[in-house]
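Please produce the structure of this protein holding adenosine-5'-diphosphate.
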Amino acid sequence: MSFNVIFFGPPAAGKGTQAKIIETKYGLKQLSTGDMLRAQIAEGTTLGKQAKEIMDAGKLVSDEIVIGMIADNMEKNPQAKGFIFDGFPRTNTQAQALDTMLKERGEKINLVLELQVDDEALLERIKKRAIEEGRSDDTVDAMKVRLEQYRDYSAVVLPYYQAQEAVITIDGMRPVEEVTMQVEAILADDIAA
Ligand code: ADP
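Below is the modeled complex.
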């Protein structure tokens, strides 16, 4: 039995943090399109060079690129009991492509965990992360665009999964450990079901 979950939420909501905490515990593999793109930039690939400008502006990289990266990484991890999709899907095309890829494996999205954090707290987190990690898209200007983009794509992607009754919303304003407890309680229920 496989289990596939999407961690959904605005930039700096804590998706990556939570995904990394739970991935080993449940044998799930985290697939973060943001991490994959940053790896391409670090390696100096053509794809990375194309993506960097778009990412620094806070815009979305093309569907073709991110869908291709996800497909490659799903293939590379046949042993995973399932995947934690982090930062993907962000468009209707991506959501449909993901459904098709999972269907080919006889699988589906079992759960979408929506992390809710208000804009003010997100801006504070981004400022802190800018100092700690030096990500070139963690600027106030790029963040404004990323939050606008989030508003737009969440209005498309969430209803897609709400129609499948797959979405559970949790409070991402709580401290990391408390959010983890909420995530684990839901996963324990859902994986057992
Ligand atoms: P955050 O969750 O903090 O916004 P990510 O690391 O998920 O950061 O993404 C950083 C950037 O990478 C995005 O602003 C976007 O430019 C690009 N990106 C990541 N995932 C996708 C995706 N699924 N579709 C399009 N662009 C993406």
